[in-house]
Amino acid sequence: MSYLTIRWRSGLLPGAVAMLASMSSPRTPLTRLLTVLLAGLLAGLVLAVAALPGNLLAGIATKAVLGAFDDLPAALRTPATPQRSYLYANDGKTLLTTFYDVNRTDVPLAEIAPTLRQAIVAAEDRRFYSHGGADLRGMARALVANVTGGGTAQGGSTLTMQYVRNVLKTDPTATAEQRQAATEQTVGRKLQEIRYATELEKTLSKDEILNRYLNIAYFGSGAYGVAAASQRYFGKAPADLTLAESALLAGLVQSPDAYSPIDGDQDAALNRRGYVLDSMVATGAITAAQADAARAEKLTLHPTAQPNGCTATASADAGFFCDYLRRWWLEQPAFGATAQEREQSLRRGGYTVVTSLDPDVQATAVAEARKVYPADDARALPIAAVEPGTGRVLALAVNREYGVGDGQTVNPLVSGGGSIAGYQAGSTFKLFTMLAALENGRTLSTGFDSPSRLTTRFPAEGEASCDGRWCPANANPARMDGYRMMWDGFGRSVNTYFVWLEEQVGPAKVVEMAQRLGITFRAPADADLAAHDADDWGAFTLGVSATTPLDLANAYATVAAEGTYCAPTPVVSVTAPDGTTVPVGQPACKQVLTPDVARAATDAARCPVGQQSAYGQCNGSTAGGVDRIVGRPVAGKTGSSEQNATETFVGFTPQVAVAGIAANPDDPSDAVGAAVQGEVITAVARTIRTAVDGQQVRDFTAPSRELVGNPQRPTPRPSPSAPQPDEGFPSDLLRWLQNRRG
After folding, report:
1. Residue ranges of region Disordered (predicted)?
2. Dist. CA 687–CA 364, nearest whole Å
3. 348: helix, coil or strand?
4. Is the peptide bond before 26 cis (omega within 30 degrees of 0)?
5. Pairing mode, if any, of strands 546-547 and 423-424?
6. 405, 378 in Cβ contact below 8 A?
């Protein structure tokens, strides 16, 4: 057993250190004298140990206090230091926001200015490249200086020891008590620090230790690591720092809060910068002339606040999209076993997330929504855009502002969730009836002489009852009544045609079709009807179930992709800090319709937007202006709910599907009115136009003759030729539905 170990275990050194620690000012002349003598004794002992031959000292240390590298905490062997995660738009360049508990990002040593590396060594550990992790001479010097009051307090810790302390006090895998113990002023903690530092030096190169230190050190003003500090103080990357800037940052680590030129004392920061420059001269890193030139530079700051979370999105009004991504993230097992672990991985995991958001489409959708309603309006126009064939969400926009301030909201108005079940989308649900009918043997030529009012098999009471049966009516008999097939039944939005068609195929099959295409029943009453009474849900085809623009856009995107349903996803890629790709968010698609059924429904959906079907059967529309705005093959459907409480339009091309629903999210009784439907149509159409701008013009594939059937019509009744707005369904329907639901 070594002499040092014997004296330590006998209690001499711990007792002496404890004596020093217990002495407080003001001191009497006697205590000061005793302190100096004791300090000299300890310093002499430390220096004596330091003077031992290197191999002998290493042997003593190993037997006394050191273990193997494998015995070190995992955080020191494989750093798990918290880093912020970045969210970018789909171009990989437009920063949307970042998430962090600790503002830091690792960068390799090659991306850190050499002047900063030299400055840190000169300021904090001049013997860094010569000691083995613990600088005993430096500790002795610091001990004497501190006891005798020789200027600024000195710690005697090497960069390696500081790195150990920083890792242990920020280790995300440790408990709060363990992190607190890493900074306790005890002899045991100091010895452990020395042990860990010495072991690290045996395994890691000096440059690797320096790199790790620079990536974890705290530089004040919330910035951890040089990447965050460079951005926070100077708005630049650490590779671009000047000598003066490097010296200033290096000077901050001794007392970050006091020296921070943003939150602390600028004069103190400049004085400390001067000290670092002098130290760099002393180490030979720079010349005296270079130091003088840097010292003469004025302090020029460019403070950059790093956005944190969805309420601080940096661009594209992407708060609602960001919120959707965060909710999606919390459901991904790849980021942890629980929602809490996944939240922590987002805020501390250092991921780079390239989202699916298209900045141009998002900007257009937001601008168009705000043309309809201002940001502070109680009414809202949420708009969602989805890419067919991938499910990637290109935009989630609304006129409202995302946030917790006055007039703002964090409710997921576009995607649904939380308190948002959605909004009635009216006749847009007729698509699901048409698909179910086509899938079950009907053709596009299926004809019916649609009356103004249709008596169904579904029981009803009150004004919506005809001899005890539900009897819905056409909103505009003059242009809706008469013999209709799927093309003009869909184009003119004929209620009685689609209620009849739903009755023929069975409401349960229509409800199942909607679910197959991604419609989620978030309202408890809707979910109950779908689960237990779907075959009697006759009004389902008229869009009485709550939905969201995102669900609706994705359902229509499935038709645009010729029957391929893709789960909506907000990401293109997620990359871990080590550069590996996390296998999440990739298109998850399956064929839920035969391509021919989807093509047939698309052919009929050309009618509402003022275009012509492949078989020339369109003869009326409810959104004829879409054709002129988009200027390429497009399809879609309008929808109005009871008394025009909401107004909806969803349109699609082979490359994008966009849905918008005007509503009052907080008061369904506040009807937006029929007049706004044209504005909703225009907003969605212009968003489609932006989404396909610059892309190849693609036409829809015509359906087979098998699904077309024999489109022979009797002589039609006279009807207006000009497009008319979709006016929803009769006012007595909602009362019937309310009675039906209980």
Report:
1. 703-731
2. 6
3. helix
4. yes
5. antiparallel
6. no
How many other CB atoms are found less than 10 A from the CB of residue 489?
A: 29
Q: How far apart are CA 673 and CA 372, in angstroms?
A: 12
Helix (H, G, I), strand (E, B) or coil at 86: strand
Output Rg (C-alpha) for the chain, integer angstroms.
Answer: 36
Cross-strand bridge partners of residue 573: 354
SS (H, E, C) 138-149: HHHHHHHHHHHC
Three-state DSSP state, 390? coil
Whether residue 26 is predicted with pLDDT greater than 50 in this model: the reply is: no
Name, in order, each residue with C-beta under 8 angstroms of 468's C-beta and a sequence gap of 6 or more.
459, 460, 461
Compute φ and ψ for 518, nearest 5 degrees.
100, 5
DSSP sequence for 648-717? EEEEE-SS-EEEEEEB-TT-TTS---GGGHHHHHHHHHHHHHHHHTTSPP-PPPPPPHHHH-----PPPP
Say how many residues make up the chain. 742
Q: Are 619 and 488 in contact (CB under 8 A)?
A: yes
Which residue, among 43, 58, 77, has the nearest Cα to 132 in the 3D structure?
A: 58
Q: Answer yes or no: are the C-beta atoms of 444 and 711 closer than 8 Å.
A: yes
CA nearest neighbour of 648 among 640, 656, 299:
640
Give the separation between CA 426 and CA 662, rounded to whole angstroms: 12
pLDDT over threshold 70, residue 60: no
Sequence-distant (6+) residues with CB within 8 A of 385 are 358, 361, 365, 393, 394, 395, 553, 656, 657, 658, 687, 688, 691
For 172, the token pair is 């995300």
Q: What are phi and psi of 246, to 5 degrees?
A: -65, -45
pLDDT > 90: percent of the chain: 72
**Do residues 172 and 348 lie in contact, with contact meaning Cβ atoms separated by under 8 Å?**
yes
Contacts of 310 (CB under 8 A, 6+ apart): 97, 319, 322, 323, 326, 402, 410
How would residue 35 be classed by pLDDT, with cut points 50, 70 and 90? Answer: very low
CA atoms within 13 A on the CB side of 437: 26
Categorize the per-residue pLDDT at 142 as very low, low, confident or very high, splitting at 50, 70 and 90.
low
Sign of the CA dihedral with 659 first, then 665, 667, and 672 last: negative
Nearest-angstrom CA–CA distance, 650 and 660: 6
What mean pLDDT do residues 519-527 have?
97
Q: Tokens 């966009």, residue?
A: 658
Angle between helices 507-516 and 430-439 in degrees, nearest 10: 100
Q: Between 138 and 471, name the one with better pLDDT.
A: 471
**Greatest distance between any 2 Cα atoms in the chain:** 120
106 three-state secondary structure: coil
Place of tokens 């909004």: 423
